[in-house]
């Protein structure tokens, strides 16, 4: 739970830091003129730097969370493809988040605005890596854990359902490469996914004794229904 909350705090901290250091200024999108991006970089280099710091810092608890959840699934006896899918997706998401953070930090360095091509390239790398490049593999993590834990009755069905819905939306974010309209799926994966992560941290059994208790309650419930 602490790791999931740490990730949440760092994500919120990055958003809050950007809003405080760049008030009333929306971060330019890649489809907008590069001159707008250059003007933003010149005006708010510290805001970009702080946001990149929090983004890079958030990748650390996310990596720990991915490793901890997959390890706990194995400890609880889950041996399925979903567990490996979750691990691969989680690792890829962490890597993409780090790439996005470093690209953002590079935008804040002195002299970078002298080359419009460099600014555009770093903007595209940062946005694509932190957008669909991050959310799509994170969706594999959501799906892998939700299916593995849900079908093994380790988590409630509503949590499995939430994870699968967020996973589908995360994968749909890849359509952003074809149409900017699909970028609406990115915040679903990034922020609703946090709710799912906190739910997994709270509901996934931490020990075999907890698992046995869950199975016993389910058995009693099934007998009562009969």
Explain the overall architecture.
This protein is mainly alpha-helical. The chain has one domain. Helix content is 78%, strand content 0%. Helix 2 packs across helix 5 and helix 6 runs parallel beside helix 8. The radius of gyration is 20 Å and the shape is elongated. It starts with a helix and ends with a helix.
| Structural class by SSE content | mainly alpha
Strand content: under 5%
Summed up, the helix count is: 9
Tell me the total number of β-strands: 0
Instruction: Please give the radius of gyration in angstroms.
Output: 20 Å
> What is the helix fraction of residues, given as a range?
over 70%
Taken from the alpha-carbon principal axes, the silhouette is elongated
Name the quaternary structure. Answer: single chain
Mean pLDDT: 88
Q: How would a textbook summarize the main sheet?
A: none
Low-confidence stretches: 217-226
- End-to-end Cα distance, whole Å, is 36 Å
SSE blueprint:
Blueprint (H helix, E strand, L loop, with lengths): L1 H20 L12 H10 L1 H31 L5 H27 L8 H15 L1 H20 L5 H16 L12 H19 L4 H18 L1
Quick overview:
With 226 residues, this protein is an all-alpha fold.
Please describe the structure with a list of short key phrases separated by commas or semicolons.
mainly alpha, 0% strand, disordered C terminus
